[in-house]
Amino acid sequence: MKILLPSAAVLALSLLARPALATPACSSLPGRVVTIESGDTQENLLKVLGRQLRDDAGVVLAFILTGSCTITSDMYTQQPILGGTLLEYVPSTAEVPGWDPTQPELQRTADPNGNAIDVGIAALFVQSCGLGGPPAGSNLTLVNGPIQAYTFVAPSGSSQQAIWAEEAYYAFGFGDQNQLAPWNDQELMFIRPPSKSTLVATAANILVPPDKWHGIPEDASEQVVSAVATSPDVERTVGILGSEVYDADRGAGIKTLAFQAFGQEHAYFPDSGASAFDKRNVRDGHYTLWSPTVYITPTDASGNPVNPDVAYLEDLVLGVEGAPSPEGGVPVDGLGDVVQVGLTPECAMHVTRSADGGPLSLFSSPTPCDCFFASRIPGAAGGAPAGCTACTTDTTCGGGQCRHGFCEAH
Amino acid sequence: MRTRVSLRMRWLVLGAACAAMACGRGSGAAATPGADAGAGDVASPADAGGPAPCVTNPQTYLEIINACTDAQAVDKDVNLAPMSAADGGLRPLP
Fold it and tell me: What is the ipTM of this complex?
């Protein structure tokens, strides 16, 4: 199935409807601008990483947030971001000293002649969008980044704790015609449009094609949070979110539901428990609602991103140790940012898959980072996690290897 | 619970072959050989009303998702029969 996508031009026109006449262009900012089109699930990462890159590497992440399938289409067709389109960016400490990632980004416009997109960040296997691989001769390379988990959410006051894949199939596939309680009122099902990774990836796991979903499509994740949290019928309300969006909104009147996949004996949360942040069940395969983020970028003949700042960005989110900033500056802890916002780096995964909703298989990272991951999740006590040894060189690791400050098996 | 087992058979048809242990939760169902049958060891055999089994050395997909863990598991009973197809599988989408 091919999903119809709004082009960047349409998106730009919609954005232009907002008052932007007095907004200066991104190119007027000090530093090197990296223009990004990203799924909105990655907003928290872009905010956290964007602040560090502004302060420490002289890089400005300027981005628009849209659906992963739109992003893929735009990259494949080399759609630029049209001149005047409003872009989000994170202020430097010098610009706004007190800014933190809980606050909104600032805005600038694309340059009058438009901006080529340096990197598109989708949050699913792009093949799920029905677009196939990059067009021949496009020089685009797709790199799998951190793992993005998805989750079903309910109001905090709901008695529901779990949802089976079969229940989700009937709830979202039949809507008001679903005869199973409690999720059988499609006015109380808060979903995403069929171009968004949250819906497309979840769809692949419950066998309901994106264009067959019932529910109220919300354009932004935060609108799902608000709609679920304020629903007057807590028992019958359900929504879908990226799990890191949920993590950032814990305590906002919603709770995550444990998920039981087809063929599974029990339902599990993304984390080892409802209140944990360790993504243990994502990492070991007990929780199946996840996809990789995918960085789509033009590359040279060697496969390296044409824009060296994009190469640096990719190195940071992949946890490449010692990755140098193209023009110097203070090292940025990109892997720590990934963990902080609720994503899971591939180096902390023990299962993998090759398609959204596809079967999991065992995976052993060639550069594991389990201890670093455990040391950086929200609520970590600090220092070495249980079973981990802090290190600065391999010599203290007893045959293992020192990675990101901790001894790992190899 | 019969409905549950039938749905899993549907899952077999859909291409995610069902391992023997994963198809018999609470039903005492006999092993169902499948493409996904792996080398994992069943830690606690299921019987009627007994605990669901788990796998101590998971290798295949169904063994991985049903591997033994001390993570919080949530169990619920769902009667899918009102929506199931005549053969007990998933009813086709409208």
Answer: 0.91
